[in-house]
Amino acid sequence: MALPQATLVTVEEDYAGQRLDNFLIRQLKGVPKTHVYRIIRSGEVRVNKGRAHADTRVEAGDIVRLPPVRTSERAEQKAQAMAEEVARHGASSTVGGYAPSREFPILFEDDFLLAIDKPAGVAVHGGSGVSFGVIEQLRMARPDADFLELVHRLDRETSGILLIAKRRMALKLLQEQFRERETDKVYLALVGGNWPASQRVIDKGLHKYLLPNGERRVKIVPNDHPDAMRSVTLVKVKAQIAANPLASGMPFTLLEVTIKTGRTHQIRVHLADAGHPIAGDDKYGDFELNKALQRSSDGATSLKRMFLHAWSLKFNHPKTRKAIQLQAALPQELQQFLPSRGPEPLL
Fold first, then answer.
1. pLDDT by residue (tens digit) across 236-257?
2. Rounded distance, CA 300 to CA 18, Å?
3. What is the Cα 255 distance to its own chain's centre?
4. Could you point out which of 5, 25, 70, 319 has its C-alpha 20 to 30 Å from the C-alpha of 174?
5. H or E segment at 76?
């Protein structure tokens, strides 16, 4: 069934601060997510008469134009079947050969927020060919939860700390901390070569673009470029790693990376532009090196994913305002790639 004409929807207070794509998915029930993203990219969706992006945050009082769309009865039936399956068999049930519900390792939880340790290879939300991300799986696993929304994002290939708000108030206050750069977020990244200890600040503009196949990419542009997004990355050498036999004797550097601006692919692009791409990065990395690191030989441990991990996060609790410091241990598949110092691991 198609809406006969475009409709205008006013954003209510309860949805203020939500991403446009998530707002539309809730408004256009039964419409495939791929179509939701298509109408956003095409400009058919307007916010206050202007074009908007999937990650645009809507505010209370915004007027959102919804174009005529055709709902999918099959999608509605599938969603209903999933809900009934979970109700019958519990949150661990599978539908169509995959698990729509899933819990993740919890680092912190109370009535206001949830902090999880996201594994690599899992998108934070559905869309762009991904049926279920972290947030959808959590909602299915917690059917009684009234509110679960992502506070921020991590790349699909990145592991580590991810915050989810359990109340609207918490979402708005936590996102405000991220926007105002009041959080301290530190990543661990392994890069090829010896990173110069004197290079501590990268301040280079970034610009998002699409490949011919529709994939998103980011590139460096001058800071005075009209489309430049100011991007600042702080880098600290944590350890110099001796030559790796899988990489023809190339040394590596383990870095602590702090981002002062949360741009898409910021760390990956900044480090690659500096001549030290992240090991295992399949978008901006050294592809020949990545292939070499995936092979196991001479007793060396292979690396089969990107070595980027959201390691530490400090923020103020949205209710008590007390400082919270979280840390997610380096996953075993990354830890085992690092050398040991005697009986102890490097981290």
1. 999 998 877 777 778 999 999 9
2. 46
3. 20
4. 25
5. helix 73-89
For 169, 189, 303, the CA distances from 296, given in Å and listed in that order, are 49, 21, 9
Sign of CA dihedral 117, 121, 127, 131: negative
Residue for token digits 């059917």? 143
Using CA atoms, how far apart are residues 46 and 215, in angstroms rounded to an integer? 23
Is 38 in a helix, a strand, or coil?
Answer: helix
Q: Which amino acid is at 59?
A: E
Strands 159-165 and 308-316: parallel
- C-alpha separations of 319 from 112, 117, 151, 152, 276 in Å: 8, 22, 15, 18, 41
Supply the DSSP symbol for 58: P
111, two tokens: 């009535």
- Number of helices and strands in the chain (H, E): 8, 18
End-to-end CA distance of the chain: 56
Q: How far apart are CA 38 and CA 34, in angstroms?
A: 6
pLDDT tens track for 211-235: 988 888 999 999 999 989 999 999 9
Quickly count: other Cβ atoms within 10 Å of residue 13's Cβ: 10
Structure tokens at 85: 């399956």
The type of residue at 308 is L
Domains of the chain with CATH codes: 7-66 (3.10.290.10), 83-179 (3.30.2350.10), 184-303 (3.30.2350.10)
**Is 144 known to be catalytic?**
no
Give the pLDDT of residue 220.
Answer: 96
**Identity of the amino acid at 273:** D
The answer to whether 185 touches 263, Cβ cutoff 8 Å, is no
Whose structure tokens read 């599938």?
Answer: 78
Residue-by-residue DSSP string for 312-331:
EEEEE-TTT--EEEEE-PPP
Positive/negative CA dihedral, 325, 263, 123, 292? negative
- Token pair for residue 310? 């959201």
Judge whether 276 and 327 are in contact, CB under 8 Å: no
Catalytic residue among 117, 155, 281, 286: 155
